[in-house]
């Protein structure tokens, strides 16, 4: 990769952000297509978030990925919202179109594509555990693709709000989750299982049933405690790598205009 005066900058903004894997994925894609782009990771503190967003305009960054904890807060600083991001209420992608900042959400696309590699979502019973940024987008995607969605979350108020916002079923809290065995697909969209909370799972083992599809959105590590337990129970498993990859492919096309070289990007992620 040669950086020169024409290099186009893309970035990820999150806090903390030093374990981000999107720079590996996007830079591998840019290199494979010989694009004069580079992708960096930044971690602005909350008090500097507005300055960071102004910096996208000021310095002319082309595209930015937004991660925890800024997916909702960032919305107030944007010029326009894609309809889907508006419906979800969270932005994970910003496109700078001639200094107009447009917010998108590609998390739901990543989750849908990752699951549809294994099975159709239409008419399936889908349990989503977690009502934060990831949970919201995944629940939206599952509903959009015709799934019958049940939302569970530690904080019931958030689950209740999301159920009413998306018109999906309120599953309940984590105690209720222990009784939920009647599902086809289960997604852990909480941060439990991710670094530093890696040696446990929030999904009770008694509801891991042979043949069912279990997805864990965790990025660090890919093979979480939950994924290992689900494999022991002969479930079909999907790691957060696939979701990251497919949501990243959408961003790549938005930022560059080119179809993402998925295989190259995946190969580089697998090695992390
Ligand atoms: N693979 C991908 O492409 C991808 C994309 C996006 C996010 N992610 C991953 O998804 C995870 C969640 O991200 P997010 O943006 O949704 O974060 P978030 O908005 O902060 O939400 C965190 C979620 O985890 C739950 N949680 C946190 N600590 C808990 C605990 N001790 N016990 C029970 N529940 C707990 C929260 O429940 P409460 O509401 O009760 O606090 C909430 O549902 C992260 O690991 C992130 O890296 C992956």
Secondary structure layout plus pairing:
Elements: E1 8-13, H1 22-32, E2 37-42, H2 49-59, E3 63-66, E4 80-81, H3 83-88, E5 93-97, E6 100-104, H4 107-116, E7 125-129, H5 133-144, E8 148-152, H6 156-166, E9 169-172, H7 174-177, E10 185-188, E11 213-216, H8 225-232, E12 236-238, H9 240-256, H10 262-270
The site of NADP nicotinamide-adenine-dinucleotide phosphate has 27 residues, from α4, α5 and α9.
Brief overview:
The chain has helices at residues 22-32, 49-59, 83-88, 107-116, 133-144, 156-166, 174-177, 225-232, 240-256, 262-270; strands at residues 8-13, 37-42, 63-66, 80-81, 93-97, 100-104, 125-129, 148-152, 169-172, 185-188, 213-216, 236-238. The chain has 272 residues and is an alpha/beta fold.
Please provide a written account of the structure.
The protein is of the alpha/beta class and 272 residues long. Helix 1 packs across helix 9 (240-256) and helix 9 (240-256) packs across helix 10 (262-270). It is globular and about 60 Å long. The longest helix has 17 residues, at 240-256. The protein contains ten helices and twelve strands. The strands form two sheets. A six-stranded mixed β-sheet has the order 2-1-3-5-6-4, with helices on both faces. A six-stranded parallel β-sheet has the order 9-8-7-10-11-12, sandwiched between helices. 36% of the residues lie in helices and 19% in strands. Strand 1, helix 1 and strand 2 form a beta-alpha-beta unit. The chain has two domains: 8-105 and 243-270, 3-Layer(aba) Sandwich (Rossmann fold), CATH 3.40.50.10860; 108-238, 3-Layer(aba) Sandwich (Rossmann fold). The model has no long low-confidence stretch (mean pLDDT 97). It has helices at 22-32, 49-59, 83-88, 107-116, 133-144, 156-166, 174-177, 225-232, 240-256, 262-270, and strands spanning 8-13, 37-42, 63-66, 80-81, 93-97, 100-104, 125-129, 148-152, 169-172, 185-188, 213-216, 236-238. The protein binds NADP nicotinamide-adenine-dinucleotide phosphate (NAP).
